[in-house]
Amino acid sequence: MRVAFLAYRGSMQSGGLGIYLHALTRQLVDQGVEVDLYVGPPYPDPMPWVRTIPLEDPRFWDKKFMPDWFSFLPDSQLSIFRPLDFWEFVVTRFGFFPEPFAFSMRAAHAVVAELRRGVRYDLVHDVQTLGYGALWLRALGLPVVSTVHHPLTIDRRSSLARDRSFTDYKGSLTFHPVRSQARVARRLEGMITSSEASVDELVSGFGVRRERIHNVSNGVDLPAPGRIRARPERRELLFIGRGADPNKGLEYLLEALSELPPDVTLRLFDDPPPRLTAIHAKLEGLRLHDRVRFDGKVPRDELERALHETTALVVPSLFEGFGLPAVEALAAGTPVVASAAGALPEVIRRAGAGLLVPPADSGALAKGILSVLENWESHQRDAVAARARIEREFGWHEVATRTLAVYQQVLGQTSRPQASSMSAKPGAAEQPVSADGRPAR
């Protein structure tokens, strides 16, 4: 089987998308799948097990907040007159987020160029783009599936909830291309996601038929196994995530911390909140600055060390499409307190450890944390014992096996001719390709 992966960002520093590409493609190749990766910037580190085709992208959205128009222009200013680049340039200035659509069109051009060279793909796997280019490839006879862990409808609802003016409201509706992504999602052969909560959201928010959605779970790069350890001398809670996102529920954790004994502290792997933001105001109002520490983004080895040493991880989210930090902490033998929201109840149940509390309820969260602190040894033993189960449920090999089963099911349901091999060796990185499918100069 030969699969074309499409991903508009590829770096492992760009969040879960890059990690997903790196881990899943490696496991699929180990199971006999040939993979060509069409990817936008920031590009991934070398992945010698796949053939990587990097695509040009002027990245106008990243430059939107630069102070002058000239810094906003691409390095090769004449390229602004290419139709797709010019369209992307203009709509970005009006607040639209065109990157998924523009990437999908560039990727479709590049795939067509490969088809003309004689390459044949059995299937296209889009990763969280859901642009109209995917429908173009379907029209050419290629089955297309797409991975969506966290449907954009959730982010739009969260954004609208915090809007305070007509301009804010208009900006939220403009920025999130929910309607176009829903149109594409409804027409694909299959959707791949990581939890039943995301399945429900794809059905209700995007209108995708439930039988076309496949919950294969999410793979996790597990830290070293935890061990039974003594109760930590310092009672320090850990929060991992972007606190500025209202879905993460950090304000409720800060309120809960204010109700806990003063020796309980909070460490956050997040940047300090800017002044005049809701989180900064919450810290000021509750006078928690001496009990809260922001450490920003940290290297993987420091993250794993914290997961093994902290007293408990707290996940107060209002929605999670999966809940990666909770799985990582339990795998490291650390107790977890999480909101019963989104996919977290499913993840905690499948892991076999962790304490759930009602979402958006700081009092209940404080009681849950205090219960774990008072009965810490019991919760820590449960977390250590959950390791084997977590490996079975969330290992990348198992997730890749389920994903391959989705491919086979989709291909079994289509009558389109499947195809072949190509002469290029996996791991050969190509030069960037422009919007018309030709090598960029």
Task: Give the SSE layout.
Elements: E1 2-7, H1 16-30, E2 34-39, E3 51-54, H2 60-63, H3 69-72, H4 83-93, H5 99-116, E4 123-127, H6 133-139, E5 144-147, H7 152-162, H8 166-175, H9 178-187, E6 190-193, H10 196-206, E7 213-215, E8 236-240, H11 250-259, E9 265-269, H12 278-286, E10 292-294, H13 300-309, E11 312-315, H14 324-331, E12 336-339, H15 344-351, E13 355-357, H16 362-374, H17 376-385, H18 387-394, H19 396-413
Parallel strand pairs: 1-2, 1-4, 2-3, 4-5, 5-6, 6-7, 8-9, 8-11, 9-10, 11-12, 12-13
Helix pairs in contact: 1-19, 5-6, 11-12, 11-16
Please describe what this structure looks like.
This protein is of the alpha/beta class and 441 residues long. The protein has 2 domains: 2-219 and 395-413, Rossmann fold, CATH 3.40.50; 236-393, 3-Layer(aba) Sandwich (Rossmann fold), CATH 3.40.50. Helices cover 44% and strands 13% of the residues. It is built from 19 helices and 13 strands. The chain has helices at 16-30, 60-63, 69-72, 83-93, 99-116, 133-139, 152-162, 166-175, 178-187, 196-206, 250-259, 278-286, 300-309, 324-331, 344-351, 362-374, 376-385, 387-394, 396-413; strands spanning 2-7, 34-39, 51-54, 123-127, 144-147, 190-193, 213-215, 236-240, 265-269, 292-294, 312-315, 336-339, 355-357. Strands 3-2-1-4-5-6-7 form a 7-stranded parallel sheet, sandwiched between helices. Helix 14 links the parallel strand 11 and strand 12 (336-339). Helix 5 (99-116) runs parallel beside helix 6, helix 11 (250-259) packs parallel to helix 12 and helix 11 (250-259) crosses helix 16 (362-374). The protein starts with a strand and ends in a 28-residue tail after the last helix. The model is unreliable at 417-429 and 434-441 (pLDDT under 50).
